[in-house]
Amino acid sequence: MATKFDFNLTATDGAARTGVISTPRGEIRTPAFMPVGTAATVKAMMPESVRETGADILLGNTYHLMLRPGAERIDRLGGLHRFMNWPRPILTDSGGFQVMSLSGLRKLTEEGVTFKSHIDGSKHHLTPERSMEIQRLLGSDIVMCFDECPALPADRRRIEESMRLSMRWADRSREAFGDRPGHALFGIMQGGLERDLREESAEALKGIGFDGYAIGGLAVGEGQEAMFGCLDYAPGFLPEKKPRYLMGVGKPDDIVGAVKRGVDMMDCVLPSRSGRTGQVFTRRGVVNIKNARHADDPRPLDEACSCPACRNYSRAYLHHVFRAQEIISSMLLTWHNLHYFQEIMAGMRAAIAAGRFDAWEADFHATRALGDVDPP
Questions:
Q1: Is residue 40 part of a domain?
Q2: Are residues 354 and 309 both part of a single domain?
Q3: Which residues are catalytic?
Q4: Dist. CA 22–CA 47, nearest whole Å
Q5: Between 20 and 30 A from 234 (CA), which of 5, 82, 201, 292?
Q6: Within a domain: residue 36?
Q7: Edge-to-edge strands of the sheet including 6-13?
Q8: What pTM was estimated for this model as a whole?
């Protein structure tokens, strides 16, 4: 078991990369998809079930955990890993993105952000220093520096001011993080869709020095074409031998496109949130299990899938329990979606290692283009 945080690239194919992040709590195979455990749980899943899908690392949410049950309480109870029964690596975001979404309930200054809780209206103050303290109390393996993330579209002046504030906060985050062997601090690149601002942000972060680097401020309303346009150059501004994390992405084709452009880590609530609303991701595209066409279908969601939902249950049953609002529906559909996302990651890792990523990608898109199988 590793005693420190380390990243080893094992193969590249074009801009796509595969490797291993080593931490004291276990290895993370890259490219990696991180299921989101917002409030110390991946909704509708047991931790051991999440691990069975192939996940090496989970994401926890600083904003939500600081409000409920509180970082100090989690620390007293042994830290987030023990609290949620997940002994493997955990990455926690800084809280900046969630605070951005509270624009009507917040006040932004150079010092930090004062905001009202969406739960009970109580007032809180979040700064780079407090964000580092909360993430230390949680025991995060990978800590994100505190940043400010404007929604897109936004005018250049707003993006520029926000990016430079985030770089000043990154410097304060680095200072407050200190020296914590075995734990990593990631900087977050900002700059919207402006190439020169992305490069300026990357240079500022490299000057400060981080264990890994995130690409923030995407998947916030700009659309896939614009996001890919930014990813055509943004990862190249970051150090080659450090992990690159694209925050908040995304749909299966977003993930594949990001890896093709040099991204190593991603997270998104989509597979779990979609599972709870009856939207299922399969090799042949999206299936809406609520649709009446599935009511008499004895076949599995995906005949090539080995998850419990596909192995043990028919579309007819999954349609029934979703329509009846039974809890097992959320459990099975979430499990399937997380399993499928991890299968995508495993497929890309193998393809990159074999030097056949382009062929794998072409097959991925061709199979999805077929569309769902017709009813019997």
A1: yes
A2: yes
A3: 93, 267
A4: 21
A5: 5
A6: yes
A7: 6-13, 16-23, 26-30
A8: 0.97
